[in-house]
Design goal:
Chain lengths: 569, 324
């Protein structure tokens, strides 16, 4: 149905022409889901944009042919191309939060889209829209169709997006990371829906994703891309079951496995890393010794102990006379972390994982409960003094490395800050020395110290964030989804780093993630949160071998996994 | 909804109290009111008697409460200069300023929004560049220069339009309007243009910037990928979302036009509140200045309330979440 041959897309720029994809050939048959997988910058989305004719200027198709059935997509005038959009090719975007017009009801958006391509009258369009929403799995569609996008949850919204892409009966749908912004539970529902639509309606899909687990779950064929070129292509079972290209193998090795715990990940070589120079090793050694010298071996008791912790948020007030019901973000949480171990906290979004982290570091105020850190009572955030020693001892690594570093400060200043703030090191020259040494320890080049955050990739920034946390000489590290914004290979790097540091310095880590496979690689113990309550807790290996609570079983079964390919391998 | 409005109204009361306090302080502390009211021939005893009669010896808070209370029932006191009640003076001036401001606002919206949309959709076109450059000139030239230039061209050289005053007016109750006679409109054109041109450039640039931002969002890309007609894309999807921040600025602008049309009103001798304010400053007519302050603050509060309600009408996310 769709035939792409030798597609090359260029972006002319001030510094010459940048070739985003080069010599791509692929086909999509009706009812087939064709996966495009690769890391960021691999050119996956560019291919999708080229097919639907929405390349961001100044991008242009330099050569190659694009044919949809009998139509040569490159020969179309802009008007003709626009008429084909929606009618024959549609697209699903990554983030359901931003891909719907917030000011229009979904009814208006659906009807408008149908009427743009077919002259069937408003009543018929409305009937079709309702039928479609029902088919897509929105209950009580006739009543809910009048709602605005913000009145739907993320998963439901993505269904609405899919309904919008479907309502004109296109032959081909390009799904650009359709589940990346969704929880595992919702993700598996959406993937199931795509598979069903391909099977029952015979729609061809191009599924763009960086997640090999997703590829393994639902695609028929897969094309592995890197740097705008095809590395390997073929039937999914064959490519993932018996990869022939070293990059495919490396990519798969970097995917955290749900079924086993790896000591270290093998990494595909990433450009821009510091080579292991002797000086760098010396520097890293210096930082390591500094960290070791500051370690105070805690008593045998738990590093962190929490009992009966509850956090409530005020609801939005809508009436003068009725106070809104407070929203219980966490209720009656009890857990304890042994020193030198990693506690994994898992749960879907909204389960209270991040609230737990924020309550521990004192960013939100609990309503009730007691927290003890290294045997001493931990005051609630509001009454915890700025100079309280725990503010140094517990450090945090945040999810988004793009917003957690001050973009106007040099790396050296960012790293020296904890040393200065906690009065660890008074001599500026020595502070700079330590900052440089710590960079070497997390595997960055020494010249990084005078650069700014925007000059680094996401993975490098996350390593800088880890270095900053370490410079406070913490005994307890809280990592809140530290890798969920990163590509698999970068994720593997950061996880390796955290594992190394943990093993070497005996750090105690609270590791929060929605990705069970990642948590499996890190955690010694596991806590499963659901709607602010702990539903299961226990040692990690036992948990993954035999989860007890039905919710845990469900979460595990929904996580996309490569396990199903092992049979083929 | 009702809760929202009520909350806003309560906030407004505090804003008005603060402004009233400022106005009162201006009246009470900038110079001695008695010595400003009386001449050199008034005896000390008479001055003291006057002070007692006017309640100027009462405690500060009592005076402020009396001041605010009188304001509330529409008693704004008397002007030093004209000895007239300030309420009447303002009432006779407000229609002129409101009409001028509204027409200027309409000019800025009717030209500014379409121009903003046009330049946003064709960011590289020759017409766009021409519009951008000419509006840059418009922003850079001070209002009074534009006014004098317009007077020179249309009033003096061409002799088409009158250069001062309101022209023919019609009386509706206390509202004297120049919108119902040809003469009135002829007199209104030049000052409204002068005031509107600056607003126009601001509106246009704002609409352009916001619209270009909105055109880059995912939902516009998604709507394009669905093949919606370009017209629906631009005017239904993009423009609606563009207007949310633009409305705030337009509201503030309108308040600004009413409050600070002083320069324009003085260039065209337009008998509005701005001109009254200017005259009051010249004669140190402090009571009028104080009341002017309060009235302008009241307009701002009113406009902001309207802007908030407009938000509510445009953006469903701000409405009370119904059970979805």
């Amino acid at each position: 149905m769709l035939v792409v041959e030798n597609l090359t897309v260029e972006f002319p720029g001030r510094h010459g022409v940048f070739t985003a994809v080069e010599g791509i050939s692929m086909t999509v048959a009706p009812g087939e889901i064709h996966g495009l997988v690769g890391e960021s910058g691999a050119g996956k989305s560019t291919i999708g944009a080229a097919v639907i004719g929405l390349l961001q200027p100044p991008g242009r198709i330099a050569s190659g042919s694009l044919r949809l059935g009998e139509t040569d997509l490159r020969a179309l005038t802009p008007e003709q191309a626009h008429r084909i959009r929606g009618k024959r090719i549609s697209m699903i975007f990554q983030d359901p939060q931003t891909s719907l017009n917030p000011l229009m009801t979904i009814e208006d958006q659906l009807i408008e889209t149908i009427l743009a391509h077919e002259d069937i009258g408003t009543q018929a369009a409305r009937a079709r829209a309702i039928a479609l929403l029902e088919e897509i799995g929105i209950e009580n569609a006739a009543a809910r169709i009048g709602a605005y996008p913000h009145q739907f949850s993320g998963g439901m919204r993505q269904r609405v997006v899919i309904a919008l892409a479907l309502c004109t009966n296109p032959e081909l749908i390009i799904a650009d990371e359709p589940t990346t912004a969704l929880d595992v539970a919702v993700q598996s529902q959406v993937l199931e829906l795509l598979r069903r639509l391909a099977d029952t309606r015979g729609i061809g899909f191009i599924l763009i994703t960086h997640d090999i687990g997703v590829i393994a779950e639902i695609t028929d064929r897969v094309t592995v891309l890197r740097g705008g070129r095809v590395m390997e292509a073929g039937a999914t079972a064959q490519v993932l079951g018996a990869p022939t290209h070293p990059y495919t193998r490396a990519l798969m090795a970097a995917v955290p496995r749900l079924d086993r715990k790896l000591e270290r990940f093998l990494l595909p070589a990433v450009e821009g890393d510091a080579p292991d120079l002797p000086e760098a090793v010396d520097e890293a050694e210096y930082a390591a010794n500094w960290l070791l010298s500051g370690l105070r071996h805690a008593s045998s008791g738990p590093a962190l102990e929490i009992a009966g912790l509850s956090v409530r948020f005020k609801g939005t007030r809508t009436s003068l006379f009725h106070a809104p019901e407070p929203f219980a973000a966490l209720s009656d949480i009890a857990l304890s972390v042994k020193p030198g171990t990693v506690l994994g906290v898992v749960g879907e979004s909204g389960s209270g994982k991040s609230t737990l982290a924020r309550a521990i570091v004192g960013l939100v105020n609990p309503a009730a409960g007691a927290m003890r850190f290294a045997g001493e009572g931990l005051p609630y955030g509001r009454v915890r003094a700025r100079s309280h020693p725990v503010r140094r001892a517990i450090q945090m690594v945040f999810q988004d490395p793009y917003s957690s570093l001050n973009s106007r400060h040099r790396i050296g200043e960012i790293l020296a800050e904890p040393l200065k703030l906690y009065g660890i090191e008074r001599d500026p020259a020595q502070r700079r020395r330590l900052a440089g040494a710590m960079l070497a320890l997390v595997g960055l080049a020494p010249d990084a110290i005078d650069r700014y955050p925007h000059q680094f990739s996401g993975g490098q920034r996350q390593r800088i964030a880890v270095a900053r946390a370490l410079l406070a000489r913490p005994s307890f590290l809280i990592c809140d989804e530290p890798t969920s914004a990163l590509d698999v290979s970068i994720q593997a790097q950061v996880l390796n780093l955290l594992k190394d540091l943990q093993a070497r310095f005996g750090l105690t880590i609270l590791f929060i993630s929605h990705n069970l496979a990642v948590v499996r690689q890190m955690a010694d113990d596991i806590v499963v949160l659901k709607a602010g309550r702990i539903v299961e807790a226990g040692p990690s290996e036992a948990f993954f071998a035999a989860p007890q609570h039905p919710y845990s079983v469900e979460l595990l079964s929904l996580t996309p996994s490569l396990a199903l390919l092992d049979g083929a391998a | 909804m009702a809760y929202f409005i009520l909350k806003r109204l309560i906030q407004s009361v505090f804003v008005m109290l603060a402004v009233a306090f400022l106005a009162f302080a201006l009246f009470r502390f900038v110079g001695d009111p008695i010595s400003q009211m009386t001449g050199v021939e008034t005896t000390i005893a008479d001055q003291e008697r006057l002070r007692e009669e006017l309640g100027l010896n009462d405690p500060f808070l009592v005076q402020f409460a009396r001041f605010s209370g009188k304001m509330l029932v529409g008693d704004f006191g008397f002007s030093y200069r004209t000895r007239q009640p300030i309420g009447e003076m303002l009432l006779s001036r407000i229609p002129a300023t409101l009409e001028l401001g509204t027409v200027a606002l309409l000019i800025s919206l009717l030209v500014g929004i379409p121009a903003g949309v046009y330049t946003a959709l064709r960011p590289r076109g020759a017409v766009t560049q021409a519009i951008l450059i000419s509006t840059l000139v418009g922003v850079s030239i001070p209002t009074f220069v534009i006014g004098i230039f317009l007077i020179f061209l249309f009033g003096v050289q061409l002799g088409w339009l009158p250069t001062f005053g309101r022209g023919g007016t019609v009386q509706f109750g206390w509202w004297r309007s120049s919108l119902f006679t040809v003469d009135g409109w002829r007199a209104l054109v030049l000052p409204a243009l002068t005031l509107g041109v600056y607003q126009l450039t601001l509106t246009m640039r704002l609409v352009r910037a916001e619209m270009m931002e909105v055109m880059r969002t995912d939902f516009i890309r998604f709507a394009t990928a669905r093949g919606l007609p370009m017209r629906a894309l631009h005017y239904r999807h993009a423009l609606g979302n563009t207007m949310i921040p633009v409305i705030t600025i337009i509201g503030l602008q309108f308040g600004g036009v009413i409050a600070f049309s002083i320069v324009t009103e003085s260039v065209f001798q337009w008998p509005g509140m701005g001109l009254l304010f200017l005259e009051s400053i010249r004669f140190v007519d402090i009571p009028v200045m104080g009341v002017y302050l309060v009235v302008i603050a009241f307009f701002f509060v009113l406009i902001n309330l309207v802007v908030d309600l407009l938000y509510l009408a445009i953006d469903p996310r701000l409405r009370v979440k119904e059970a979805a």
